[in-house]
Amino acid sequence: VKEHGRNSVRQFIPEMGVTAISRLNMEGALRRGLDRGEFVLHYQAKIDLRSHKIIGAEALVRWQHPQIGLIHPIEFIPLAEETGLILPLGEWVLAEACRQQIAWQKLGLPALKLAINMSSRQFRQEDLSERVAAIFSATGAQPAHFILELTESMVMQDVESTLVTLRALKNLGVALSLDDFGTGYSSLSYLRKFPIDELKIDKSFINDIHENPDDAAIASAIVAMALSLGLQVVAEGVETKEQVELLLGMQCHQVQGYYFGRPMDANSFANRVQSSLAG
Ligand code: C2E
Ligand code: CA
Ligand code: CA
Ligand code: CA
């Protein structure tokens, strides 16, 4: 399996035995993990398709469990979401990304825009924008260096209150992205009404883009729509050169995927950026 190797991500459930760890234990472990600082962020490059330059990164959370090793978000985000632990975890993610952004600037890296995933529970907090603002001011990070990723299902749930939240976030100076685009049910008319900056085409449309004409047509239509609405468009899950060439032909702005780099720890990512500048 591709995922295995040095950065092998071990699966929580199979390693422990499905019945060995109860939900309750898992919840307790998550809570302790937060208190003990067991979470880390990995960064995956976002690449400008014309210049092939790294222009930003998506922050992706992992759980560095002392016994189990590195645990993938798919193993703990759903429970964190259910239990509400996603709220403190989500705030930690943003604060950590802010600290990292500042550390990289001090190192002399070019200004990178960091993308942060928001969970639906976070997004529905009435005081979300105040909380986000508080994290920016506590860490000293600039909102303009961040892009918050939301999903279609999140924003389409209650469009009136969504609009209020999106405007409040935009007023802080952060950019907004619609993640996994194409997999949910966004009413296209809201794309115009919502103050969003970017669409991220879901990787399920990119996977077979070179051999499935329907997927290629969908990707191409999303790119064209984003361009005509003046939005940035990013393709995720790009693994091959053929995909890169097709997306370039469609005028897609940015790509993200294993072809250009896997998510990696902060130091490896900084080295990667520095060597790409030198090279
Ligand atoms: P996502 O936001 O759609 O993130 C993209 C996922 O695709 C990441 O998985 C990334 O490692 C993976 N990926 C990147 N390039 C490729 C590629 O070329 N091929 C393939 N097959 N996959 C690729 P990851 O890191 O396991 O994250 C999974 C999901 O967990 C994310 O999906 C996101 O929904 C959630 N997540 C991650 N970090 C956070 C976080 O800090 N907060 C919240 N709320 N959710 C998070
Ligand atoms: Ca994302
Ligand atoms: Ca995505
Ligand atoms: Ca996803």
From TrEMBL:
Residues 23-277 form the EAL domain. It comes from the Bacteria. One of its GO terms (molecular function) is cyclic-guanylate-specific phosphodiesterase activity. GO terms for biological process: cellular response to nitric oxide. This is EAL domain-containing protein.
